[in-house]
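Proteins fold reproducibly. Next comes a concrete instance:

***
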Amino acid sequence: MAIRLMAHNPLWEQEFFQSRSMLLQATEGWLTDVRHVGSTALPNMIAQPVIDMLAAMEDLQGLNDAATLVEGLNYSRVAAPQWCQNELVAKLQKPRSGEPTHSILIVRRHSPSWRRVVAMQEFLNASMIDRQNFENVKRDNFQPGCAAEREYETAKAAFFEDLESRLGEN
């Protein structure tokens, strides 16, 4: 997947709310919360144009059922992020083929993955300095084309590891 960065689009928030509504309705109560996370949720942040969402389930016994219902909304299952490999999660992207426009990570509410994503999102929302540092990491490591994707993702992962260690100190 080629990396594309765009200036913040105020329509991303509206797209999230529409997607959230459809996900909550379609999953018949399995999903109890859906949050807008990632760069498209941060004010004035450059971002890849993908609406990232974090969804909570109270009980993961229905994870496969919930994921199957999400697939009915033109999503397909993809590999979970490496940082949550020790947990039972489901990651889905939309559309089923081509460049993704939406991504959803389904986790158990209050799991380590839930707490990690929510804490980092809240921190970046509150810290303009760290948000600017994150944007600098993106700009400094952005190169068009597929070959640069690994370096770009590695730089972002290092930023979040540093952020997470600082959050752990507080």
In short: The CA atoms of residues 55 and 106 lie 5 Å apart. Strands lie at 33-37, 51-57, 76-78, 90-94, 102-108. The first strand starts at residue 33 and ends at 37. The chain has a mean pLDDT of 89.
